[in-house]
Amino acid sequence: MISLSERKDLIRAALGQVPLDLRIDRVQVVNVFSGTIEPGSIGIKGGRIVTPYAADYDANVVVDGQGRFALPGFIDTHVHLDSTLVVPEFLSQLLLPRGTTVMLSDPMEIANVAGLPGFKALFHSIEKLDYHIFLEVSSRVPTAPGLETTGGELDLADVSEILTWPQAVSLGELDPSKVLEMRDEYLLKVEAALRLGKICNGHAVGRVGKELVAYACGGLADDHECVDYEEAVSRLQLGMAVLVREGSTERNLDPILKGVVENGTYSHHLMFCTDDKHPDEILEEGHIDFMVNRAIELGLTPMQAIQMATINAAKHFRIEHLIGSLSPGRWADILLVDDLQHISPNQVFFKGKIVVEDGKYIGTLPKPEYPDWLYKTVTLKSGNSGSDFRLEAAGDQAEVWVIDLFPDQIINTRTQDKLRVIDGAVAPDPERDILKLAVVERHGKNGNIGVSFVKGFGLKNGALASSIAHDHHNIIVAGTNDDDMALCAKTIEEMQG
Amino acid sequence: MISLSERKDLIRAALGQVPLDLRIDRVQVVNVFSGTIEPGSIGIKGGRIVTPYAADYDANVVVDGQGRFALPGFIDTHVHLDSTLVVPEFLSQLLLPRGTTVMLSDPMEIANVAGLPGFKALFHSIEKLDYHIFLEVSSRVPTAPGLETTGGELDLADVSEILTWPQAVSLGELDPSKVLEMRDEYLLKVEAALRLGKICNGHAVGRVGKELVAYACGGLADDHECVDYEEAVSRLQLGMAVLVREGSTERNLDPILKGVVENGTYSHHLMFCTDDKHPDEILEEGHIDFMVNRAIELGLTPMQAIQMATINAAKHFRIEHLIGSLSPGRWADILLVDDLQHISPNQVFFKGKIVVEDGKYIGTLPKPEYPDWLYKTVTLKSGNSGSDFRLEAAGDQAEVWVIDLFPDQIINTRTQDKLRVIDGAVAPDPERDILKLAVVERHGKNGNIGVSFVKGFGLKNGALASSIAHDHHNIIVAGTNDDDMALCAKTIEEMQG
Questions:
Q1: The domain containing residue B103 runs over which residues?
Q2: For a FRET experiment, which of A267, A320, B166, B182 has its CA 20 to 30 Å from that of B315?
Q3: Which parts of B201-333 are beta strand (E)?
Q4: Pair A167, A304 in one domain
């Protein structure tokens, strides 16, 4: 929010009583609010825009926009920051050259590991960044209550508290089952958000017909899981905005926007998101800029595509007074670009400070500073010894469920198989590529270990483990033998993830 | 807001687990959210829309829409209810046949007379109506502090409290001087609204250039005072929505929308309001329907004009989850009309109940029930006696200021004139149409009386008084002699206004 003295400084500058901090002259203002492109001069005071038509204002610093187009910074409307595998402090150098100045983030991973204190620690750090993070407050921590143990939980009271933070813009993606089963906790989380004037983000994977209607009736305002035009239209028809997604694995832009262009679909309730996109791909391919450019290639007008990346998103999330257009009082997050047919920011300003020059990040990455305890979240109560992974059985052979993996797919199936019983325990069969798979509780809570089998992993010796295991981030370990699986888990505890 | 059990009923109906209350079959759904018009069947449960495509749902009651177009109810985005001179209970019969189901109202008059208790009394009554009232919380009560005495005040604490009410959608029109003078009280009222996720309505009468920029920098989100296209564009360019007004005296629609049509102006940040429109004119000419039809005549598409009257307004005021489209979970406020080129509602549903049939209001007007004290707000501490109006002066003649009236205009000027002094007091001169004009404090506070003179009123004998005197509603009385002026004031006290 803006303080009283900041507000007065802004008004004084607007009245011409004090000079602007900065004036960017000779630009073509892409005014997404009025839908026009006109020559202008952007006046800035205290990091905020005074007016995009500031030619007759004095300024302490004047820079030449060299006739470039001036756009508002781009907004990623749904992203799991944690999934970038990079601390927020380091993301600036990836995002800003691409023109993304706003991340609407649901940090459900840190909440699953470290609960409300983790959420607060992350929030504390984001105030120092040179891009904006607004919070989509995680609605389902734990994601699968009763199935796995988590390090933290965000119950109704926690969610209600976080929703009051000024940086909280919405209740984060609520999965349909919780709405369709009409579970009090989740419906009350929806009401908590609505009561605070905030929206609720949807996540309507594959839902159609009456289930989709019921989900919309649950108060969900959007969906970022549409995979084709037909799905997108079915959401729009039910009053849900569509967050067109183009992430590392989910590629939904082309099928949706081809339909939008062909049918001349009203684009006001369309916007962009990445959901999960890895840093190497942001670096090579791009971020929201990639989507804007692709939308233009497909036949949307540059104004439409830029509105999707800016004002449409800001209005949907009810923060159009802060970001999303080059209008008075909004943060001075500005992209200067040479070509509206292919947008590649030459310069980027964040809160009126230049952070990208000649397409290169020139800001100073803030030093990540998190509390010590946040680096110490792996505590094993079991899993240190091979015997912890032992699955006892009688006889020579046991019938077991085996998870079947498919290369490059998120989906899997299960089949029944028979495995040998050796020394009273079911043994994996690496010869047939059937490994033991275990989830080891790592939050120091109860030492639970779940054991199963997996086919298609391809490991011949030893074991492999990860503490990135969505959404609860217990240790998941696949192995050919119990001792190596225990070694993996122990090593992750030593490394602290 | 929706209760948990209402939400569950809605979801159950959406899942088909319980029948709909009502299904309106065979309609062409004007879907302002997706921008499409398609055949549909509107399903309703608990007064809310389940889906506009409900053909495969069971319903307790089915009505035939006879192929008519189904539109969301219209929204008046800025209106002073009190200026209709009719209690809200009686407005239904005027508004609903015209298709207006939502009034966004700034009840500054009652606040000036009766303060926060008056505001609350009005609010209590509006819950019984068959149209929606949302509150634009009066930002300036008193309007002219220090100049006149009011019966009530809404200070920062009062305004902050009212803004938390779920029916409060914004801080009501803040006049520019208070922003440009950077007065703490008003800037803090703006922040109070923004902090609660609500917007601030503007009132930028005639402001241009740096003053307009400064006003926009004050956090004001819109303006309803634009008189021509040029003014409207100047607001849009600065990120302010334009509430196109067509009231009893202010007629701004044609000049603004002609420009919009000629220039193909982006219409998403345009909407409609009446501000002040008298009941006889609503009855004869119409309300928001009149504006929608005129917009279509001028060349906007029916979809654009209807969006201005519905979803544009709902989104601007951040209540698109409640009203503004025929989408799941929104109130079932529905107009059925024969012709999209000239919209004249045949049937109107409010919260799923039919209130207009064959264009006639068929609802039951609720009985107005207000506390007794609200009918007793005129208390004179002086003004009962002719001598209270006496303006003493020495000599034979006195030089005085005289207010000049112009027929049918709100503006006036002042000139100096000479009046006779009789028995030591300045005397009006009815021969030259110069009357005495007084404002008599009627809130029982201090008995102040302000006395001046007015020319052009035309009264030859006696006196005339009114307790409707914007914005503070003291008694204003013009007269040819002091005794008749006192009689007028006394009579108004007896009548209680």
A1: 72-319
A2: B182
A3: 222-223, 241-245, 270-273
A4: yes
Amino acid at B119: F
- Position B191 in a domain: yes
What is the full per-residue pLDDT of chain B (497 aa) written as tens digits? 799 999 999 999 999 999 999 999 999 999 999 999 999 999 999 999 999 999 999 999 999 999 999 999 999 999 998 778 888 999 999 999 999 999 999 988 899 999 999 888 887 778 789 999 999 999 999 988 888 899 999 999 999 999 999 999 999 999 999 999 999 999 999 999 999 999 999 999 999 999 999 999 999 999 999 999 999 999 999 999 999 999 988 899 999 999 999 999 999 999 999 998 999 999 999 999 999 999 999 999 999 999 999 999 999 999 999 999 999 999 999 999 999 999 999 999 999 999 999 999 999 998 888 999 999 999 999 999 999 999 999 999 999 999 999 887 777 899 999 999 999 999 999 999 999 999 999 999 999 999 999 999 999 999 999 999 888 999 999 999 999 999 999 999 999 99
Cα–Cα distance list, B492 to B461, B489, B497 (Å): 18, 5, 5
Mutate to test the interface with A, among B21, B217, B263, B327 (most CBs of A within 10 A): B217
| Rounded Cα distance, B105 and B107, in Å | 6
Nearest CA in chain B to A42: B238
Q: Given B184, B221, B328, which is nearest A217 (Cβ)? A: B328
ipTM: 0.93
Q: Give all strands (DSSP E) within A359-471, no chain letters.
A: 360-361, 397-405, 412-422, 425-426, 434-440, 449-455, 463-466
Q: Tell me the three state secondary structure of residue B487.
A: helix
User: Each residue of B337-368: b (16+ CB within 10 Å) or e?
Assistant: beebeebebbbbbbbbebbbeeeebebeebee
Coil vs helix vs strand at A433: coil
Task: Classify A355 as helix, strand or coil.
Answer: strand
Quick check: is A356 in a domain?
Answer: no
B174 neighbors B202 (Cβ within 8 angstroms) = yes
Residue B233 to residue A34, Cβ atoms within 8 A: yes
Nearest CA in chain B to A38: B237
Q: Which residues pair with B74 in a beta bridge?
A: B100
CB < 8 Å to B197, chain A: 196-198, 318
C-alpha to C-alpha distances, A17 to A9, A25, A131, B180, B181, nearest whole angstrom = 9, 20, 30, 11, 12
* Residue of chain A whose alpha carbon sits nearest to that of B45: A217
Mutate: best of B167, B238, B242, partner A, most A CBs <10 A: B238
CA B404 to chain CA centroid, Å, is 29
Other beta carbons within 10 angstroms of residue B422's beta carbon come to 10
Do the chains contact at A329 and B36, CB–CB below 8 Å? no
With a CB cutoff of 8 Å and minimum separation 6, the contacts of A488 are A463, A464, A465, A475, A477, A479
Q: How far apart are the C-alpha atoms of B223 and A437, rounded to whole Å? A: 63
B212 and B125 assigned to the same domain: yes
Q: List, in sequence order, every residue forming a beta bridge with A401; answer none if it has no partner.
A: A416
Chain B residues whose CB is inside 8 A of the A2 CB are: 191, 219
Domains identified in chain A, total number: 2
Which of B5, B52, B10, B305 has the alpha carbon at shortest distance from B23? B52
Position A126 in a domain: yes
Provide the shortest C-alpha distance from residue A112 to chain B (in Å): 27
Which of helix, strand or coil describes residue B122?
Answer: helix
Hey, are the CB atoms on A328 and B8 less than 8 Å from each other?
no
Q: Is residue B315 domain-shared with residue B382, that is, in the same domain?
A: no
**Residue the block writes with tokens 């997108």:** A232
- The tokens describing A462, both together, are 């030893």
Q: What CATH number corresponds to the domain at position B182?
A: 3.20.20.140
In a 10 Å sphere around its CB, with 0-12 CB exposed, 13-18 middle and 19+ buried, how is residue A409 labelled? exposed
